[in-house]
Amino acid sequence: KRNQAVATLLVCPLEGVGSKIPGVWINRRGMVRGFGKVQPEPETECFHYASFMLFSNEIWSLLPAGGSNILYDVLEPAIKQGAQVESFRADDLLWFETGNVGDYLSATKRCLEMMVEGSPLGLCARDILNHHAPNYTLRTRWDRCHLISDTAEIPTGLKLNGFAVIGDRAQVAAGASLQDCVVLPDATVASGLHRAEVLI
Fold first, then answer.
1. Which residues contact 26 (CB under 8 A, 6 or more apart)?
2. What does DSSP assign to residue 63?
3. Taking residues 5-29, what's their average pLDDT?
4. What is the mean pLDDT of residues 66-70?
5. Element (H, E) at 113
6. pLDDT at residue 123, rounded to an integer
7. Assessment of whether the complete model's pTM goes beyond 0.90
8. Position 136 pLDDT exceeds 90
9. Please, what sign has the CA dihedral across residues 116, 117, 121, 123?
């Protein structure tokens, strides 16, 4: 309000933002100068848009008719016309990109590790889990960490290596072996080795 910004975006550091994935380009004063992979002007730095944004009432007059992308179709043209769009940097925010199987599995593994370590974020994750999914049990042993729903149907002697998450009502066949896998709720898993997979 003080700076009469049309919008303020929550941003955080993330490896590969601005090169591998699009980001939010901000200048030294924290003003947003553009979006994407191409640096819009010198002396700007790229951050990840962390999915929270505040708007002024002026945003309603900037929305085009029909569907639109708030970043590219609304805020970017507004910036070019001189509107103020600001950022709020949260450098200690931990963000996981989960748009592909590899990143999703890496994020899952790291969250399980944090819960086992008892770090502040891990304790927060455990509280969320206990509140929203109290029927999941976290089991750890040496370098293994497993989060398994009490409603999952798993055979006696199921081989689990690395990390594993087995969701509600999932059915795992006898003879299956899981290594670094996430089995989604209601999934059916055939026998055999499954490695680094999201099973549906």
1. 11, 32, 33, 44, 45, 46, 47, 87, 89
2. P
3. 95
4. 94
5. helix 101-117
6. 93
7. no
8. yes
9. positive
CA 123/CA 13 separation, integer angstroms: 22
Q: Which residues contact 107 (CB under 8 A, 6 or more apart)?
A: 96, 97, 98
Residue 166, helix vs strand vs coil: strand
Q: What amino acid occupies position 72? A: Y
Instruction: Please check the confidence at residue 178 and state whether its pLDDT lies above 80.
Output: yes
Structure token pair of residue 29: 């004063």
Burial 24-40 (b: 16+ CB within 10 A, else e): bbbeeeebbbbbbeeeb
pLDDT at position 94, please? 87
For residue 116, the surrounding DSSP H or E stretch is helix 101-117
Q: What are phi and psi of 127, to 5 degrees?
A: -60, -45
